[in-house]
């Protein structure tokens, strides 16, 4: 199995490097991205960085683990001892509020009020596919431009693909500039389509019956007002995309030692490479710890059977069977890990052992941070 032996991912070196300004945690759902993002930000703060962590986790676990009653769209200070002079703030993305702020930043007050009050905009900003990912990147850009923090840690959205946020600006742009929206808004916009005269009127009449007159008017009003600010949206999206590719950004892929999760991790690694996004390394979360590595599964099982046959020491027999199962699971993990390492040579890894209970406070986050900071190649 050593043909695919992985190298170390030195997390502390990454966090201590003042040139590292953005860390993006990505991975499939349920692998612990939110916890890793919080642990990385806490460890960085306690090593002297002024860090902020942004999450989009609707379960609000980050607030609980950081000892806060709630998180919102404004970074909140986390009360934690930082002997190194650092600080930690945390926030949870409010998708609609961020969209509203972006509109207000791009439009004059009158036009902004017209957009914000439009029913079609209100639906778009709350539920359109890709809006959450777009706004996560918009918020990242806002935090970076503020200059208030020297490290931003991002917990990516829980979408079908944890890299959907790379496509979100283009997807939202295609929708807002798409044929259907342009066609529906043609009467309000004027231009070439009006030259079609009765033809466009007939088709619009059919669409009005399908969609309803009010919705059509809302779409027309929205596009008419939004046209003047859309260019600013696209420009900012392009700036943030370039920021993700720039030196100073580091992507951390989070996975668990399971087939599906590591298959997704392979996809993330390949996609990041294709997009020229800087990958720092892989965190293999919730791995098994074997307390007596010299005792094989076979010997442990045999010893348990001997004790069970004699009827003596039932607790010892149960412990031996538990040990044997952990050894078997660890061997499966090593095979999966080494297969991933063989497919992606040169990508550093660090393992975080499974915990007996969920993370719910700063002490647990520090413990995870210490595991991350060991910087040892998993063995």
Describe this structure in words.
It is a single chain. The chain is an alpha/beta fold and 379 residues long. The protein has a domain at 11-165 and 239-292 and 337-374: Rossmann fold (3-Layer(aba) Sandwich), CATH 3.40.50. The chain is 55% helix and 13% strand. The chain is built from 16 helices and nine strands. The protein has helices spanning 11-16, 33-46, 61-65, 95-106, 109-116, 119-127, 131-146, 168-176, 179-184, 186-189, 198-211, 213-245, 259-274, 297-310, 314-343, 362-373, and strands spanning 7-8, 22-26, 50-55, 76-77, 87-92, 151-155, 249-255, 279-287, 348-353. Strands 1-9-8-7-2-6-3-5-4 form a nine-stranded mixed β-sheet, sandwiched between helices. Helix 13 links the parallel strand 7 (249-255) and strand 8. Helix 2 packs across helix 16. The longest helix has 33 residues, at 213-245. The radius of gyration is 26 Å and the shape is elongated. The model is unreliable at 188-211 (pLDDT under 50).
Which helices and strands, and how do they pair?
Elements: E1 7-8, H1 11-16, E2 22-26, H2 33-46, E3 50-55, H3 61-65, E4 76-77, E5 87-92, H4 95-106, H5 109-116, H6 119-127, H7 131-146, E6 151-155, H8 168-176, H9 179-184, H10 186-189, H11 198-211, H12 213-245, E7 249-255, H13 259-274, E8 279-287, H14 297-310, H15 314-343, E9 348-353, H16 362-373
Parallel strand pairs: 1-9, 2-6, 2-7, 3-5, 3-6, 7-8, 8-9
Antiparallel strand pairs: 4-5
């Amino acid at each position: 199995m050593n043909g695919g032996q992985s190298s170390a991912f030195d997390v502390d070196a990454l966090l201590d490097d003042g040139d590292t300004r953005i860390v993006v945690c990505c991975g499939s759902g349920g692998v612990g991205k939110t916890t890793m993002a919080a642990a990385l930000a806490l460890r960085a703060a306690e090593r002297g960085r002024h860090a902020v962590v942004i999450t989009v986790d609707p379960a609000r676990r980050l607030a609980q683990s950081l000892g806060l009653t709630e998180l919102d769209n404004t970074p909140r200070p986390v009360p934690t001892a930082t002997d190194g002079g650092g600080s930690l703030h945390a926030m949870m993305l409010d998708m609609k509020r961020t969209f509203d702020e972006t509109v207000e930043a791009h439009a004059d007050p009158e036009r902004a009020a017209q957009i914000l009050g439009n029913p079609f905009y209100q639906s778009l900003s709350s539920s359109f596919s890709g809006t959450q990912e777009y706004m996560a990147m918009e918020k990242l850009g806002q935090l970076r431009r503020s200059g208030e923090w020297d490290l931003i840690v991002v917990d990516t959205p829980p979408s079908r693909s944890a890299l959907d946020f790379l496509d979100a600006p283009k997807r939202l742009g295609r929708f807002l500039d798409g044929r259907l929206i342009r066609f529906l808004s043609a009467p309000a916009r004027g231009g070439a389509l009006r030259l079609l005269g009765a033809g466009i009127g007939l088709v619009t009449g059919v669409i009005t019956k399908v969609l309803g007159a009010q919705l059509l008017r809302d779409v027309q009003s929205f596009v008419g007002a939004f046209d003047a600010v859309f260019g600013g949206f696209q420009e900012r999206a392009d700036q943030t995309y370039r920021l993700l590719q720039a030196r100073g950004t580091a992507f951390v892929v989070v996975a668990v030692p399971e087939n599906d999760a590591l298959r997704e991790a392979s996809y993330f690694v390949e996609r990041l490479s294709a997009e020229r996004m800087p990958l720092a390394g892989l965190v293999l979360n919730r791995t098994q710890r074997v307390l007596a590595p010299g005792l094989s599964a076979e010997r442990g099982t045999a010893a348990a059977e001997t004790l069970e046959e004699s009827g003596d020491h039932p607790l010892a027999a149960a412990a031996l069977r538990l040990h044997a199962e952990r050894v078997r699971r660890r061997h499966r993990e090593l095979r999966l890990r080494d297969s991933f390492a063989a497919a992606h040579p040169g990508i550093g890894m660090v393992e975080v052992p499974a915990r007996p209970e969920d993370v719910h406070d700063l002490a647990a986050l520090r413990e995870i941070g210490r595991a991350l900071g060991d910087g040892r190649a998993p063995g």
